[in-house]
Design brief:
4-stranded antiparallel beta sheet, Dipeptide-binding Protein, domain 1, alpha+beta, Dipeptide-binding Protein, domain 3
């Protein structure tokens, strides 16, 4: 099946030749191509590991030009594509070595070729890893690649990867972030100047020959489209929301004197009617979050502690914490008013609506909330990392293999340079131990248990207040079968070979 593209306001999959909001499809010859529309052009397509290629639209196109070694389906299950199998400790092709090191052996399938007919081999993987770890190459990420000590290719279809330390997903991330690149095409250019490899003709020509892209439909527009289709009783087009990995939440600054008492933090979440929030703002299509890992994540805490809407309990906790109501209804303690300032990205209407709900519901239990919204560059470039906030409303996007290391470990608290993910300044020795242990635990069941226990402790402490998980909207003709959005960072084009058209 052929895939083409154009840039539009919404990302939809349409039968070629139709408009953005099409009328009922007219009779036409059977088509074998699909058109995608989105709001953004990919910078570069072919070279999937450079910094400019890390954008989602580039990854979507690259996913079809460069097949994955291991892929992820709509159930968030990994399966081999170019690899013959996924290595395992049980099968003996994932070996644990002394000093915490590892050796993972991969066998590749034969028959995959580059556009000029040259076979894809293990040597292309070794080359890609060397490119990505070169300090002059503008890499889009090398955190995992840097964990690899060396990669060797004993023959054209075997890779032996030497890891410096244990990594739970060494049987998924074959060469870290690098994947593979055509050594016979890019080798000379890499030796000449690694810094300009992203401008090589091979990377740019792919965009000229295959110009297509895809991204998620903005939620509010997707919801309006879905409602319009329902009003018009349309059956030829489908708009659907898929719960995803983006977590909307409130960070609480644990170094702020008003928020150091856990009872205050718990009172704040008891005072929020989150179910009513997602119903009124999103018609229930963005589910309430009860922790930071979503239901389809392997570490999801199924029996998480649920902080339901309970203003009576919120008042009780605030009373116990010594915050007494004043004449104006706002609580005080030792002459200090329980007044908090919330920051989020300026101009975001959905978040502004959330702030208004919080302002009203927190005032009902004696907490005054002031709103001060800022440009994203200020919020994320200074206020968050430096800890110059009391309450901060924003989103984090996880992957299916994300964990809590760095995000909620004490060594993730930003220092003078601002580097570090733990903006809440949360510290808990048990969470440190568990979250640091997750990446190196190879037993999936034990790893999940560690994540679940870390979430239990985290939910008691509440350094952040979970609000909801975002959903991603996509739209497509009803005649396009096997359209399966994953709700993860996996492009919607992951299963293009399975797409089929049926007559309506």
């Amino acid at each position: 099946m052929k895939v083409k593209a154009f840039s539009l306001g919404l990302a939809l999959a349409l039968v070629a030749g139709v408009s953005l909001l099409p009328g009922p499809a007219a009779s036409a010859p059977a088509r074998t191509d699909v058109v995608f529309g989105t709001q953004q052009e990919p910078a570069i397509i072919g070279l999937a590991i450079c910094d400019a290629c890390a954008m989602y639209t580039s990854a979507v196109v690259s996913a079809q030009l460069l097949l994955p070694t291991v892929d992820l389906n709509d159930k968030w299950e990994f399966y081999p594509v170019i690899a013959q199998k996924m290595p395992s400790v049980r099968d003996g092709d994932w070996n644990l070595l002394p000093n915490g090191k590892m050796q993972v052996t991969w066998k590749l399938r034969r028959g995959f070729t580059w556009q000029d007919g040259t076979p894809l081999t293990a040597y292309d993987y070794v080359f890609a890893w060397r490119v990505n770890t070169h300090p002059q190459f503008p890499s889009g990420g090398r955190d995992v690649s840097d964990r690899i000590e060396n990669i060797q290719a004993p023959d054209a279809y075997t890779l032996v990867v030497q890891w410096k330390s244990r990594h739970a997903f060494a049987n998924v991330l074959i060469t870290g972030e690098a994947g593979y690149l055509p050594r016979h095409i890019l080798g000379k250019a890499f030796q000449t100047n690694p810094a300009t490899l992203d401008s090589h003709e091979w990377a740019t020509s792919a965009k000229q020959k295959t110009a297509y892209e895809i991204t998620a439909v903005p939620f509010t527009q997707g919801l309006e489209l879905e409602k319009r289709l329902q009003r018009e009783a349309r059956r030829d087009f489908i708009a659907q929301a898929t719960p995803g990995l983006t977590w909307e939440h409130l960070d609480l600054n644990m170094e702020n004197p008003k928020l150091t008492d856990r009872r205050v933090r718990q009172a704040l979440i008891y005072a929020i009617n989150r179910e009513q929030m997602v119903q009124s703002l999103f018609e229930g299509k963005q589910p309430v979050a009860h922790s930071f890992l979503p239901p389809k994540h392997y570490g999801y805490l199924k029996n998480a502690k649920v902080y339901g809407y309970d203003p009576a309990r919120a008042n009780q906790l605030l009373d116990e914490a010594g915050w007494a109501r004043g004449a104006d209804g706002i609580r005080t303690k030792d002459g200090v008013r329980l007044e908090l300032t919330i920051n989020t990205t300026a101009g975001n209407r959905v978040r502004e609506s959330v702030q208004q709900i919080l302002q009203q519901q927190w005032r009902a239990v004696g907490v005054e909330l002031k709103i001060q919204n800022l440009p994203a560059r200020v919020l994320f470039g200074d206020v968050g990392p430096s800890g110059k906030f009391e309450v901060m409303l924003y989103a984090l996007t996880f992957s299916p293999i994300s964990d809590c290391e760095g995000l909620y470990t004490s060594d993730g608290i930003p220092g003078p340079t601002g580097a570090g993910q733990n903006w809440t300044r949360y510290k808990n020795a048990e969470v440190d131990r568990l979250c640091h242990g997750v990446p190196g635990e190879l037993d999936a069941a034990k790893r999940a248990q560690m994540l679940q226990r870390a979430q239990q402790v985290w939910l008691d402490d509440l350094p952040a207040l979970p609000l909801y998980f975002r959903s991603d909207y996509t739209g497509h003709r009803t005649s396009l079968q096997n359209w399966k959005p994953t709700g993860s960072t996996q492009p919607e084009t992951w299963n293009v070979p399975e797409w089929r058209f049926t007559s309506q």
